[in-house]
Amino acid sequence: KTYTMAAAAMELKRLRLAQKPMIVVPNHMLGQFSSELLNLYPGASILVAGKADFESSRRRELMGRIATGNWDAVIVTHAGFERLPLSVRAQEDFIQEQITELEVCTRKAKEGEADARIVKQLERAKKKLEAKLKALAAEHRKDNTLTFEELGVDRLFVDEAHAYKNLFYVSKMSRVAGLPQTASERAFDMYLKVQHIQRLNRGAGVVFATGTPVTNTMAEMFTLQRFLQPDALRRLNLQHFDAWAGTFGEPVTAMELAPDGAGYRLNTRFARFVNVPELLGMFRQMADIQTAEMLKLPIPALDDGKARIVRAPVTSELKSVVAALAQRAEKLKSGSVDPSEDNMLKITGEGRKAALDLRLVRPRAPDHPESKVNLAVREIHAIWQETRDQRLTQLVFCDLSTPKTDRRGFSVYHDLKAKLANHGVPTSEIAFIQDYDTDAAKTTLFKDLRAGKVRIAIGSTQKMGAGTNVQTLLIAEHHLDAPWRPADIEQREGRILRQGNTNPIVKILRYVTEGSFDAYMWQTLETKAKFISQIMTGESAARKIEDLDAPALTYAEVKAIASGNPLVIEKARVDAEVMRLSRLRAGHAESQFAARSRLRAMESDLPRIERHVASMEQDLAARQDTSGDKFRIVLNGHTVTERPKAGEMLIQLVDRHYRAAAPVVLGELAGFRIEYRSTLADTLTLQGSAHYQAKISVSPIGIISSLEHAARSIEDRLHARRTDLAQTNKNLVELSALVGKPFEHETRYAELLARQNELVEALDLTKNQAPNNLSAETTDVELTISLANEAMVETPAPDAAPAARMAV
User: Are 165 and 158 in contact (CB under 8 A)?
Assistant: First the structure.
């Protein structure tokens, strides 16, 4: 991804298709990206703008250097890019445009007698924008620097572009859950600058690069399309979110617990996508998706071909905690607890903490010798010991219980470090990524990791994920907990499964506490990762898909986990198999439809091809020889034997009949009529039983040569048509055998569907979502526990589906 961007920028400059490309990279990647660009192009003239260059005292100088220098590339950080000021006029125009859109939405909402709350929210959003507009009008820039538009930047490359996904949009669907509601200033600033670059390049000129284009919800695709294909959205009248959501989305209304906890209410959630092939067709117009399988990069292989699951046994204390969580969920369901005091998100969070280490929810709980942390200490120490001579390194990911500065309360990080030190690992070789909070400090740490000075780094996905290029000596990676998003797993495992790792085989270990929320979390991640991979690579044949976003467990899922019900595991297996067979079945149905269409087309083509072959055979038998002195042509009733003279006469005849409405016979050659059609202005036709076209030339010799060539080519055309006939007959036989062939796994598929329904009933997954007197259509039956990889439950799961390496 780095080299692709660097090469694209430099080649655009070399070919004079760009004057001044700018590359925007994550803050801590500035030095590394610059050095990698210089590795590719040692003679490149680049300007690298660090944090100090954007300070008030130096910013004017930096802006002047960018504007006046003939740079091959200007490299800035995400934070620095935000500090390149836009002209107030550009901001005012955009905000005014958004205000106009809000006014239209408000008017339509009032005309449609929409909920008063929707109207109020739209009016509130409008007031915020108006206040922003006034602030801009009153703004006096403290430092009179150049604006972004005046820097001469005409191409833009943005690395880790998913950081800009929270882009403001106008919508009447403000009461619909499941939509991205956050709006960041960073994304707004990027959007305006992208628009400026696109205006300079007729809609092009911007490249977004990211390994995780869709991180949590499919609605993020709309943001990418707004950034990169606004013209395509406008052409289809999909530039407004409501129009896009109405075309590709489907709000699902289901029963959910009311905020006051006193009962249920209907809630609308943006949870389903429709017209998926068309959406992906649009998306692929601006997305160049490259997965690891496509690229076949020289990355290390996984030990045994898959990640290894390290299982921690459930303890009686953990069982009681999970049972208590299930009781809290039941109270929430019955409405006896105010959701402001307790809710499913809080229960889910505590369940995840208890799965990591019981002391995070019960500080006085004992330190179980077989806990995840203790198992991790043994694995990390064993690998550290084995690779001591080579000084190989390890990463440990843990998003929960990050270290606190005041050291109060229990922290998994400090516990892990202390135990490793007790096993003989020097504390100087263990680092917390949270202790390195500046770009310079991180650069130093990464250098030490690549050199083997620091051999164990512990951190969260956010701090140690994207942009952490320390793969040189990495031999193992440990997942102490499971994040919510598959994109986070991709970012984690992308640190070790990466080009530049000198180890041919590496290990990834996932730690799972049995009987806890861990199994559910990993199953959900497997489901989401496979789904995103299918969508990104276009492997899904479905027209409708459920969205990915799932912030908390359902009551039934907590209950199933607490009970330790083996049916939960069986359901995961069954759902995985149903999903696999569903894809195969959809593919079979599609191939049957295509085969029937081709069969009908061939059956209608066959008589036509046979007639064409017979006609050409007749023409070949009747064709007269005009080679050499045997040349004879009849034009306008006169026989001509000289080619130049014949050519001149023929050109005159064509000119005379240039505007003729009907076909005109001009003469005869080699036993064929010479016809001219004004609708085919540059073509003459030799007409026999079949017809043969010849190009009209302005040269007398050329026009005659073209006609003689058409007559001589009958043998070649006949041979090609006979080949077509033989191939069509062969295809007809093969397709006739294929059409009507049943799906080979139909019986198994039906059995699994029946078992799936039985498991849903047995696990009480539908009945626990709402009162029993509600109809099936109004109960919330979304099953987010399902579709895990079968291997995830019984054996170590394979590496999650590789994230799309996308340069959009």
Answer: no
